[in-house]
Amino acid sequence: MTDFSRRKLIITGLATAAGVTGLGVAARLAQKYGLVPPDHGGIYGLGETLTYASQRLLTRHSLAREFRPSQISKPPLANEIPPLSDAFKRLQAGGFADWRLSVNGMVERPASFSLAQLKGYPSRSQITQLACEEGWSYIAEWIGVPLSHVLGVVGVHPQARYVVYFSIDPQWWESIDMADALHPQTFLAYGMNGDELPVANGGPLRLRLPRQLGYKSVKFITHLTVTDSLKGFGKGLGSASPEGGYAWYAGI
Amino acid sequence: MARSESVRVPLGASVPSSTSSVPVTTVTSRHSALVRVTHWITTLCFLALLVSGVEIVISHPRFYWGETGNVLATPLFKLPIPSSRALVPTGYGYVLPDQNGWSRYLHFQAAWVVVLTGLLYIISILFTGHLRKNLLPRKADLSWRMFSTSIADHLRFKRPGAAEAWSYNVLQRLTYLFVILVLFPLVIWTGLAMSPAFVSAFPLTVTSLGGQQSARTIHFFVSLALLLFFLVHVVMVFLAGFKSRMRAMITGRAGTSMERT
User: Is the pLDDT of residue B15 over 80?
Assistant: First the structure.
């Protein structure tokens, strides 16, 4: 009986030690391979980390579904937008001729682009779904320049890990990892359904990220920063969303 | 009574004396430790998923069929409840507070825990024989007579006999199998079909259902079916003897026939 208990104790002890060591190694590896989201702390960190890590292992290069032109939602939906600032209205009055997108951080050549410059780059279009975390969705054609093209123009440092992007509305900023930033369907969109991108849908310039929920597709983009750490931005949780209680990674 | 032959009734169960006269070591466990632990983890996760799921639905209490759906589209049906978003026309003059942030974090965390627990459970019931011995209907159960007797007993709210404290009747077996093999897989599948990143790698999970909004609508109805199971299950536990059944699922020890009456 005592022999049996001792053996059981030793086996249990070894199994626990192996388990703890395994978890430690897994955490170290996950950190190294960029499988840990910036909002991994707190009581929901386990679920978020499992989701983000699984998606990075399974869907790093997968393409969002694209639809036929006949599937475009009519009439197009425009979700609520925050009140437009005076600065925005001045730019709007000028036909957005003075709208600028500045790019800095871990890049070779920090730059500031006008809309005309962005439209001068090879234009791409995609018919993809925009799904909101609330449950509704719509399909639209999005026209723009892939973010990867603009990042190629400014020359991203090899140690870069995230792109942080800012709306003209200072409350609204987000970030994505390089897998999403360099993804071929991640656009700086300036057109929608064959026309200019309406202000109600984020015009003149919004990010389009069809593999994540709508709140990551920030409207009225004016600034991008390339970085290797999200610690210095806001509360260090990655974007405004986790600060407001929402997950940083919205691919689900 | 061919049915009770295969059932292990402990020596103490038929003794109409006090409960503790039987030494613990000779009492066979009603439920194995693995079944008990996975049962309660699943219960906690289900309640978390239910509460957070309701909160998420409140932000858009409209359901659609096909790929897309929004306030400009015709819904399949609407829930007659207020919403936590001003954009949704509900007929109510007020907007509920937004609870989606924590609800979504909790929903996906509980989903992970219940899926991993479910995997552990499925693998273990295959290897321990729990599936074959206790969940798949016995040969004798698969006669129409046994089946109709079981249904009639349920309709009469007949209290289970001593043997049933140690085994599942045919209706229980079929219901549990349906929940384990149909409802849970379906709710996981339709949940994944709403993930924009997951369907980018596995588009068939959503196209086979007819679209993302169809997946959401099916997810809602399967959740209702799970809720119905949960409520009936709790009622049946009360009817069968709340104390003894709870003790069986917490400590593993079954109650005696004296305690149930």
Answer: no
* A67-243 CATH fold: Sulfite Oxidase; Chain A, domain 2 (3.90.420)
Task: Say yes or no: B76 contacts chain A, CB-CB below 8 A.
Answer: no
- H-run or E-run covering A13: helix A2-32
Task: For A172-212, write each residue's pLDDT tens digit.
Answer: 999 999 999 999 999 999 999 999 999 999 999 999 999 99
Distance, CA of A162 to chain centre: 9
Task: With beta carbons under 8 A apart, name residues in chain A contacting B200.
Answer: 59, 62-65, 210-211
Residues 137-196 of A with CB under 8 A from B: 137-139
Q: How confident is the model at residue B113 (pLDDT cuts 50, 70, 90)?
A: very high
> Which chain A residues are Cβ-neighbours of B216 within 8 angstroms?
135
ipTM, two decimals, is: 0.90
